[in-house]
Amino acid sequence: MAEKRNIFLIGPMGAGKSTIGRQLAQILGMEFIDSDGEIEQRAGADISWIFDVEGEAGFRKREERIINELTQRQGIVLSTGGGAIVSKETRNHLSARGIVVYLETTVDKQHQRTLRDKKRPLLQDVADPRQVLEDLAKVRNPLYEEIADITMSTDEQSAKTMANQLIDLLEEFSSVN
């Protein structure tokens, strides 16, 4: 990949977007940005607090603005929040401004990975977090698939192995397109 095109990682919470994204950016010598981290930094508050104060709709508006801005940069690896693709505008920005990689995982794996994570507002104070993940998957998986240039399962291997496999897939994609 001679020219450094933007790489945007999408997928459900717990798919490994941030972990794999950091590895990928490091290997490629690109800047890594986590949209959730950027939102927290700019707001001076964590996402759970933003959800409490602004609700999910307020958070999504904020997320849409920040992703619009971030996707206009060049040569970045951007990890998006699991629900970022709910916004049609965000989906359009992602697919128009870089290579979109859908990191796919099963609900079982998500549940395992997010079980003790207190930074997931949609999974807090719910009777059945697994059911929430299943419901989100029904709505969001088709949206991830709609804009993905590359789809990769993240269920079994280490982040470093997956980042290296992803580089091969990105090179294949770039040579075809």
UniProtKB/TrEMBL annotation:
The keyword ATP-binding applies. It is found in: Cytoplasm. Keywords: Amino-acid biosynthesis, Aromatic amino acid biosynthesis, ATP-binding, Cytoplasm, Kinase, Magnesium, Metal-binding, Nucleotide-binding, Transferase. Pfam families: SKI. Its cofactor is Mg(2+). It catalyses: shikimate + ATP = 3-phosphoshikimate + ADP + H(+). ATP binds at G14, A15, G16, K17, S18, T19, R120, Q157. InterPro entries: P-loop_NTPase, Shikimate/glucono_kinase, Shikimate_kinase/TSH1, Shikimate_kinase_CS. Mg(2+) binds at S18. PROSITE patterns: SHIKIMATE_KINASE (PS01128). Its EC number is 2.7.1.71. It is an enzyme of class 2 (transferase). Binds 1 Mg(2+) ion per subunit. One of its GO terms (molecular function) is magnesium ion binding. Pathway: Metabolic intermediate biosynthesis; chorismate biosynthesis; chorismate from D-erythrose 4-phosphate and phosphoenolpyruvate: step 5/7. GO terms for biological process: amino acid biosynthetic process; aromatic amino acid family biosynthetic process; chorismate biosynthetic process. One of its GO terms (cellular component) is cytosol. Substrate binds at D36, R60, G82, R140. Signal peptide: none annotated. PANTHER family: SHIKIMATE KINASE (PTHR21087), SHIKIMATE KINASE 1, CHLOROPLASTIC (PTHR21087:SF16). Belongs to the shikimate kinase family. Catalyzes the specific phosphorylation of the 3-hydroxyl group of shikimic acid using ATP as a cosubstrate. HAMAP family: Shikimate_kinase. Monomer. This is Shikimate kinase. It comes from Chelonobacter oris. The gene is aroK.
